[in-house]
């Protein structure tokens, strides 16, 4: 059940699944990227900071938001073109996040019949509904079966 | 040796360390985020795609670019405020990437003496010098020791 | 879109997504379980074995088969009750596996109105269509929204 | 010290080493398999469930039970043929599990002199002695040195 | 900014960054090395031990001490020649460690002009300043740019 | 079957199990420790080095040598007291290593009846028998059951 570009229109909105961010996520993300900033990895440092304890990398929240399941996963996505985020509030180990997304624009491709560019606005929220990140993602969505026949 | 905001100015540019992206990075990133898209995880699917083999998640390249060591790590960074990327070309397992960055703007904070907002333009490049991603990061940089005394 | 027990019946069949099993999967699975059998971890040993190279843990294939996405993920699954597998052929790093499943039995719960027990027969197959594992899984599926109102 | 099939007989029983299942195990297992079911990964969801908190994947307990060290590791195991489990009770992060196993049947191979098929009954138990899983594993055990000379 | 051997002399001392050792580190290190000793992995066993809870592998602390960032990272290190540690006190999940190091000896290489052998004495300390490990590392440091021209 | 100190004497020697070191081991070890030295992580850099390709961290080989199974695992080990290694030759991804160990000294404890200090000499070797590391480990071994009764 792959949804073609033609079925997507501005104003459609979606809510993703949730994931609880754990200390394991933070340690793995530091190891993968090499970002061992004391804000993420040094409990002594953060005990004296405004946050009071280690916080997740902003990019970890960003990365998670691109993997959380939602109806958007059923689109005939062919490429991830652009992403942007503003990091608004911290995510701590133990927080459970999900995103809310709305189609801002669905513009037919000039070069590929049936396909189009979809711009999504999104917010990542924690278990209290607080927006921790907000931004946009731009996707190339194909025409599905019809597009392939075209 | 922490570099305060006052020492940063537009036009300064930097080159990061490099990292070779491996199959391990891709499998770990899929597992961390839940993004098991066949472009990243299904060699049968990609054998028939334009790419011919699995590609790294765009967000993996993005995440790596925020962890690669560079002189920017010595800045008195207090917060990562914004990030954006355009995904221009694929990264394959075995590619070695680094980034090149230039300070686009360094604007004093209105509320915090000595601190300021730094906007960086960057490109992520592979071992052939091909730009695979380009974008901007916005950081809050503190005043260093003098700033703290102020 | 959660599918209640009432919509499931014997004979329905499904094909899962695929995943390419990598050396990373094998090393991570050994580390998680503590199973460092030379068949999986010692290339010198396996060079002289019938297989000629390291093979994935049978339990790794089994575990992967419970995570691969398929329409079964949309069922209102409440519990995983039983599983069994016969390990029929080896899985090597680089193989791409998926499963094919058929509902063998869908039996209403005696104690919970709307819910039922679903028994699935499955085979795990590699990129050549060779069956590498076969077995059964038994799930408790809820009544969905109607069931909750009952 | 490899124990040949000839030394194995029905009624022999064994106790494995123990392992404490952690949040790390759960996050890694989800990532490896792609099973991000909210029962395992969403603390908000499970706070309202019968369990009250995230539970480990049943297949994680199953996988761990095949890696925990026991005297069975000293057998001249040549292949893991079959496995089955019933998931009886939940495993939570922080639980410490081990298995108890008894040889149910040791049947000489018809085709390979000295080798045989061993069927083991097992239960996985937590730190309170509660059985959380029970099932059977079937192994092919070789003849050891004598068998190799035969 | 790579520091050549000629700039290193006995008596120089350094303090590293800190890292909080987590349960994740312990589980990953056990998986990587295969060391599932109950002191590290079995909370029931350690509840009855002198320590009262699981401790990190001594080798995990040792390994971390070779990765923690310090000014030594800026040396023109060409090879890690020798290492030794005495394990003096336990490291628990939640402890935050760093090392303090002093150059004990800086001896010019007999065979490579500009290069030399540097012997470092070090202690790994926890958040209370308690020495948990002490030892020495021996490095081969190059001559930097001048050395390369020589 | 736990071997007490009284059964250990100088001259006893042991051979461990083997493990094939993979790219996965190197990436995970870098991530765990934070050691992203280009010798381990940058294929462009190493293509121009004497080694010609990435090498495993010396400390990774060291860490693996403390986890590889051997008859020493059956000793009543109570503590790991000291370790030292000389890094003699590189380990590459794909190499299969094991260690050979000999008891150099077994000295009764002055304070604990039945227990003693055991000093082991070891060499880590690759699949060609080349010694890649050599060193010593010092262990505290208990008196086993008899010791506990004493």
Structure commentary:
The structure is a homohexamer of 150-residue chains. Chain A is built from five helices and six strands. Chain A has 150 residues and is α+β, with helices and mostly antiparallel strands. In chain A, strands 1, 2, 3, 4, 5 and 6 form a six-stranded antiparallel β-sheet that branches. The longest helix of chain A has 11 residues. The relative contact order of chain A is 0.26. The interface between A and B is medium-sized, with 32 and 32 residues. Strand 3 of chain A pairs antiparallel with strand 3 of chain B, so a sheet runs across the interface.
Which terms would index this structure?
homohexamer; 150 residues; alpha+beta; Thiol Ester Dehydrase, Chain A; six-stranded antiparallel β-sheet; 5 helices; elongated; disordered C terminus
Quick take:
Chain A has 150 residues and is an alpha+beta fold. In chain A, 23% of the residues lie in helices and 33% in strands.
Largest interface: A-B, 32 and 32 residues
Order of helices and strands of chain A: EEHHHHEEEEH
In CATH, what is the homologous superfamily of chain A? Hotdog Thioesterase
Q: Might you state the CATH topology name of chain A?
A: Thiol Ester Dehydrase, Chain A
Beta-sheet strand percentage of chain A?
A: 25-35%
- How many domains in all of chain A? 1
Distance between the termini of chain A: 19 Å
Structure classification of chain A? alpha+beta
Class of chain A, according to the CATH hierarchy?
Alpha Beta
- Return Rg of chain A in Å: 18 Å
- The helix count of chain A comes to 5
Q: State the low-pLDDT regions of chain A, or none.
A: 146-150
| Average pLDDT number of chain A | 94
CATH hierarchy: architecture of chain A: Roll
